[in-house]
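Re: [ENG-882] Designed sequences occasionally contain unexpected residues at chain ends

Forwarding the minimal case from QA. Structure tokens:
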């Protein structure tokens, strides 16, 4: 299993370094990395017998990584996949070594894993919501100045490392003050929201 694990890590590293990951909707390949990590950890859990709880604790490490990257549905999917894999581990261990399996303990461990993973999903989703609120403009829903500057710095660093060039486009809304003065700030706010939505839909 160790050579296979090394091969997978080398493959992920090669994809990230080459920039091939940018072709995917999630450039960090979080869901795929979680699935691979689940497979290796559950392989270890199957052979661990009495030490199986150690491998269940190890799984929280990559799962916490997913808490900051995955949308809610994908995170729940990853949790369900992990719980199904561990249930399969218990089933296979019972068939292969029934005299070494305490079904009550295994069931409690599975239930504990389920609770911990679902708790991480809940915490991760809350953190993502807070992060979105901190990085977006409350009126228009687009990125605020702080997040725009952070994104520009990240793109500049990527460009400096040999990545593709990027452009910055500035737009100015003409006569917005006149709209606010004549029709009120409520309509001006609607105009800004509509404009932001139209621009975002074409990006």
């Amino acid at each position: 299993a160790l050579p296979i694990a090394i091969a997978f890590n080398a493959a992920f590293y090669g994809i990230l370094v080459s920039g091939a990951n940018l072709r995917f909707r999630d450039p960090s390949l979080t869901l795929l990395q979680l699935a691979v990590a689940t497979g290796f950890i559950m392989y270890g859990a199957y052979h661990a017998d009495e030490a199986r709880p150690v491998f269940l604790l190890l799984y929280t490490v990559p799962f916490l990584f997913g808490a900051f990257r995955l949308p809610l549905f994908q995170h729940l999917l990853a949790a369900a996949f992990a719980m199904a894999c561990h249930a399969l581990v218990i089933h296979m261990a019972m068939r292969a070594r029934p005299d070494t399996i305490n079904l009550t303990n295994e069931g409690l461990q599975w239930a504990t894993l389920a609770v911990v993973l679902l708790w991480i999903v809940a915490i991760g989703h809350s953190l993502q919501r807070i992060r979105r609120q901190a990085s977006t403009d409350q009126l228009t829903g687009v990125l605020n100045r702080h997040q725009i500057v952070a994104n520009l710095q990240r793109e500049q660093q990527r460009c400096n490392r040999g990545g593709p060039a990027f452009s910055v486009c500035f737009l100015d809304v003409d006569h917005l003050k006149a709209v606010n003065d004549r029709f009120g700030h409520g309509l001006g706010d609607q105009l800004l929201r509509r404009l932001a939505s139209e621009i975002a839909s074409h990006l």
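QA comment: On inspection the terminal residues look reasonable. Residues 103-135 form the longest helix (33 residues). Proposing we downgrade this to a documentation issue.
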